[in-house]
Amino acid sequence: MGKLVSAFVIGGLFGLGIAVSGMINPAKVLNFFDIAGTWDPSLVFVMGGGLAVAFVGYRLIFARRKRPVFESAFALPSKKDIDGQLVSGAALFGIGWGIAGFCPGGAIPALGLGRAETLIFVVAMIAGIAVARLARTRLARPAVT
Amino acid sequence: MTVFTPFQSLLGGALIGLSAVLLMALHGHIAGMTRILTGVIPPVSADWKWRAAFLAGAIGAPLLIRLAGKDIEFNVPVPTLALVVGGFLVGVGVHFGGGCPSGHGICGIARLSPRSFVAVAAFMATAFVTVFVIRHVIGG
User: For residue A134, which residues of chain B lie inside 8 Å, CB to CB?
Assistant: First the structure.
């Protein structure tokens, strides 16, 4: 129970940060990418603030603790390879981000504002994740003929 | 037009960073929205419960701010078709690219992960080009 309350509060902090930073607003995100037009450099400050805290915080955690409070071990991404899948996936992500102005971290908290546009984006994004997951499973295990 | 907000954005970013640090210290996880969200999409992962709680909190915070009477600027300047196409591309891309701006951009770079540096460079580059093309080449 404590674990779920903790996750809820930490998620709330994330949503609060997204709202306060302005990254909940697709118009603001898109303006960051529009240097030739209505440029709004705010996103750099969001990244700067987030990175500064996470960089120091992660180091303090890993220096002082062998395991997290609620779990037996840290679940860190183990993949190291920089391959075509990483680069093409990220490139495709950026195109979608530039078209819609939403990213997952901005869109999920934006659902709390109760607007249909956000829901449309999130449903399309979940469809994309589901299709990609299916495609990857098929690629990994070719059908036996 | 949106107003440049260096202080709020820095503060909001720091809150996102704090959320990432607490999620690591208490739960041992990276605060990547994609990774957290994917675990609650069927077939759900075994540990879907904390993920659902995190998502509920993330959605609840802006809702609470609005209920408290504070306004949150929100404007979607693109047509529905762009939301559908963009959303689908974001979903496919985020799956193969292994993360989004919160996972790669903040958590990954804070861990100095080479994969994250490459991913952030790639999605930032294509987002800049995409917005330039849409606003100044097609829409120019």
Answer: none
Domain ranges of chain A: 2-140
Closest Cα to residue A103, out of A25, A21, A48? A25
Q: Is B105 on the interface with A (CB under 8 A)?
A: yes
Rounded to the nearest angstrom, the minimum Cα separation between A133 and chain B is: 7
User: In this structure, how many other beta carbons lie within 10 angstroms of the beta carbon of residue A129?
Assistant: 23
Compute the Cα dihedral for A95, A101, B99, A119 and give only its sign. Answer: negative
CB nearest A86 (choices: B4, B119, B127):
B119
Give per-residue pLDDT as tens, B3-55. Answer: 999 999 999 999 999 999 999 999 999 999 999 999 999 889 999 999 999 99
Closest CA to A10 of B69, B67, B33: B33
Chain A contact present for B34, CB below 8 A: yes
Those residues with Cβ within 8 angstroms of residue B75's Cβ, 6 or more apart along the chain or in another chain: A25, A26, A27, B2
